[in-house]
Amino acid sequence: MRSLFIFLTLLFLGGSVAMAQPDTISINLSNVSYPYPVKFLHLQQDGQHIRMAYMDVKPTTPNGRSIILFHGKNFGGYYWTNVIKTLTARGFRVIVPDQVGFGKSDKAYIHYSFHSLARNNKMLLDSLGIGKVTIMGHSMGGMLATRFSLMYPNRVEKLLLEDPIGLEDYRTFVPYQSAEDDYKTELKATFESVKKYYATSYFTQWKPEYDYLVKIGANVNKSTNFPRYAKVAAMTFEMIYEQPVCYEFGRIKVPTVLFIGKEDKTIVGKALLTDEEKAKHGQYKILGPETAKKIPGCKLIEFDNCGHIPHIEVPQLFLKALVENI
Asked: For this UniProt entry, which residues form the secretion signal (predicted)?
């Protein structure tokens, strides 16, 4: 009988992960093993009781600093393992939340906004007694980290953005779809379609060690609760589309480092575009430098032959750059 649990064999070199795959993954990833113990913060929003999952990883020898990691839309805390190990080895306390609607957190039917997600994370830090914190956000997490830094600048020591989405306003060139339209699209997701999207959107070259990302991201579609998962995914797509941060980069007041994979071509809503439109947008080798100029005092670090997830695709280079600039 196949195990109900996914066992992640974490290989620190290269940040790669191997794992066994269950036939079905629950929409709250209850049968996915995370690298460190998971706790829950209890929240109230829109008249609902909601659980927000997080890992709180403390170093053996503390340096007195804390960092919080914000994941991307199609991910959860499970893909930060090599980053967590690197940072805790250097004395950082590392907080790794699954945002509400993602990972092991509840898939609530609420109004999703970057403002409310930022407030949730402030409440998490308050509950842990953490004052100032460095924030690192990847992909969608970069939009959230930007919003958090704008809302609570006095709480942010440093802002680290890893291939954030939202460097351009998708509303200006991606055709509008309602949440109901997006929901119908999400329901059609298959293992093959998810793998194709990850392979063509996230990496310059697919490697077997990336398969675990697809297995987690795709096998939720076998859950009896998958329609709920798909609905929330559509609602958070709408959040990204309707709540740009690119016009506010000039208002950031905290030291910022922007990490960019030069071959990243991520566009939210890419499937709705013509080939001509795809070629005009999502060019991070152009968007990275343009964005760095908008953020006061921003330092830009670029990685050749790298796509959307530098901490997985070029882990040694990324981790070296991270520890030198945190």
From this structure: 1-20
Q: What is the mean pLDDT of residues 173-199?
A: 93
Contact 214, 17 (CB under 8 A): no
d(CA 312, CA 63): 26
Helices H, strands E: what count in the chain?
A: 11, 10
Residue 19 pLDDT > 60, yes or no? Answer: no
Rounded Cα distance between 182 and 236, Å, is 10
**Could you tell me the strand order of the sheet in which 156-162 lies?**
39-45, 48-57, 93-97, 66-70, 133-138, 156-162, 256-261, 299-303
Position 22 confidence tier, pLDDT thresholds 50, 70, 90? low
Q: Tell me which long-range contacts 220-226 makes (C-beta under 8 A, separation of at least 24).
A: 220/25, 220/26, 220/27, 220/29, 221/189, 221/190, 221/191, 222/23, 222/24, 222/25, 223/24, 223/25, 223/26, 223/27, 225/26, 225/27, 225/107, 226/27, 226/187
Q: Which of 301, 302, 291 is nearest to 250 (CA)?
A: 291
Domains of the chain with CATH codes:
8-325 (3.40.50.1820)
Nearest one of 190, 184, 214, 194 to 6, comparing CA atoms: 214
The percentage of the chain sitting over the pLDDT mark of 90, rounded to a whole number, equals 92
Q: Tokens 């093993």 map to which residue?
A: 33
Closest of 325, 320, 319 to residue 300, by C-alpha: 325
Question: Which tens digits make up the pLDDT trace of 33-54?
Answer: 999 999 999 999 999 999 999 9
Q: Dihedral of CA 100/101/104/106: which sign?
A: positive
Four-point Cα dihedral 39, 42, 46, 47, nearest 10: 140
